[in-house]
Structures are given as structure tokens and as C-alpha cells.
Description:
Elements: H1 3-7, E1 10-11, H2 17-27, E2 31-35, E3 41-46, H3 47-55, E4 75-76, H4 82-92, E5 97-101, E6 107-112, H5 119-126, E7 133-137, E8 157-158, E9 161-162, H6 163-172, E10 178-183, H7 187-196, E11 202-207, H8 213-216, E12 229-233, E13 236-238, H9 242-251, E14 256-266, E15 270-275, E16 278-284, E17 287-299, H10 315-326, E18 330-335, E19 339-341, H11 345-357
Parallel strand pairs: 1-2, 4-5, 7-10, 7-12, 10-11, 14-18
Antiparallel strand pairs: 2-3, 5-6, 8-9, 12-17, 13-19, 14-17, 15-16
Helix pairs in contact: 5-9
Amino acid sequence: MDRTELKSLLIPVETSLKQAMQTLGVTGKQILFVTEENGRLLGTVTDGDIRRAILAGTKLTAQVQDIMGTNFVAVNAGCSDIRKEAKKLMRQHPVDQIPVVNEKGVIVDAILWLDFIMPQDEDQNRVTDKNAVVIMAGGQGTRLDPLTKILPKPLIPVGDKPMIEHVLYSFHRNGFQKFMIIVNYKKEMIKTYFNETPTPYDLEYIEEDTYCGTAGGLSLLKDRLHDTFVVTNCDTLLESNYGDILEWHKDKNNVMTIVGSHKEIKVPYGVLNMSEGSFRGIDEKPLLDLFINTGMYVFEPEILDCIQPDGVMEMDQLIAKVREIHGERVGVFPHWGGWFDLGEWDEYRESVKKIKNL
């Protein structure tokens, strides 16, 4: 790792979780090293550490010193074969990143597991041919009226491709091979498009007789899916490693994992603080840190038993029912980085600009 890249991974102890989260999103290395001013390594912070802290209720304003790992393993910079020693330590300990420190404990380099393998190879080890992606593409897309009176939402162009092709590509490059598209509104146009456009995807259409809501159409998949699968809206794109989401879901033993993306919401007003009937002050146009439902989920097949055949069911109703039955096995994967919601006009316009830049 060159010096500039290493420097981007070094943070002081007073760094907030929010700042660390943003830095992880920029670097894409899944780890940061907490150091003193002289560079002495004090601890490590991974994206998993931050996700666990968020789910435990830790505020994003907390400092990384509150959650950092201090029992890290490291390679001595004087070692005769640093890479060989780092690889051995990675096999002995459940870590994917090894810092290299000198005799004073100052970090001088870092060896990452991705230095030994290609990232796509790692994803394909975690994603199997049995892990299907179900794309909910049956709605009328009323938020994009009047365009959706002419085209079904999945075929609305984003750059030089329709919306649904961007979704398919994002999963395919992460190792997914099998796609099931639930269609209803203007379904023949969607089928005709793919019949006339060669793609490398294994596509299967699941046709609703009547619109069954944002979750009801999943009842048509009962007895057809026997392994962990992903459900996503046709207008949702994430800048994320989907293998990480699948692995998180399995490690937590969840039956349902909701992907939530961090959003900063600026309140355009002065917010009054009140307590016990007394005025305490004003927060002028505060920023709220929220995790928004992205419309992407990881499910286990038993979820399908919670959906009434041929009935209308919205996703929030399904989530509530699954939580009632399975309790704590309904979890959240906190995500940060790019999230494109293409299903609403203002977000669509902004997303088109960002996707073109990407």
C-alpha cells in the first residue's frame, strides 16, 4: 500500500462514528486505523464495528475510541517476509486486514486480504447459483407520472439503459446469476424489451393476475425458492458490496434483513427544544441522521409462509408479521455510500446525473 493510500486510512481518536463512516465510504477498504499524532497505532475500526455500534444504539456523534478494537494483530516491519507473515496471521485470526508496525508501534503499512484475491472472486464465493434476486416490477410507478402512463417504470431510461438493466447489472457484477421479475403493469412491454435485447442474465417472469401490493406478489414464489434470496425494488440502486450484505444476514442468523441507508436530512426551520413544559433553546436548521429503508431485503424461504396466496400485502405489513413470528431474527444492514432512489422525480433527476458521472 502506498503512503497516500495508507494515510487516508489513519484517523485520530476523536473522530466521530459519522466521520469514520464517511471515510470508509470514500476509501472502500472496510477498515480504519486509529492513531496518535506520532502515528502510533491505538486500535482499528471496521465497517462491521460501526454497524454493530449503530444497531446497539450508539449515536453517530460518538467517538471511535468508544468502539475501536484494541486487541489487533500486527506484523513487525522488520519481518523478513511481511506478506507471508500477514497471510499466516489472516488464516490464524478472523481478520481481513493486518497493520504493519515498526519497533515504536507506528503503523507504516497495511496488508489487506484483497491483496491476495480479486474482490469479485470473494463475492462469488459468498453468492451461489441458488441465491436468486427477486425484482418487484409490477407497480404503476405513480410517483413518476405522466411518464409511466406511457412506459412501465422498469423501462424508464437512466442514461443509455432502462432503469431495470442498471439494477440487473449491479447484482450480476456481484456474482448473482438468477433473476425473477414480478410483473403486472404493462408487463408485455417489459418482456418484449428483454426478448429483443440480448443479456447475460437468467431471467424468469412471475406474472401477477392483479396487483398484489409491494409484497403480495412474493406468494407466487412459494415452493420455488429454497435458499436465501434477495428482494429489491426495480428503482433502487446501491453502491455496495452485495456479498457483504448476504454475509451479514447469514452471520446474524436473520430470516429477514432490511437494507437501511444513511441519509442526512436538513430541517429547514428552527427546532424548539422543550422539556417538562419549559423552553430549552432552539436548534437552527439541524441535520438529522436517519437510516432510510432502501427497498432492498434479504429473505429466507420461510418468509413466504407469512404471505396469503392471491392477497394484497404491502411490505411494511409483511415486515410486521415476520417480526411478530420471528422476533429478533428481523435485522437491519446499515449502509452508507451511494443510494439511488429512481422512483420519484427529484431523486430520479439527481440520480441520473450521478450515474452518468459514475
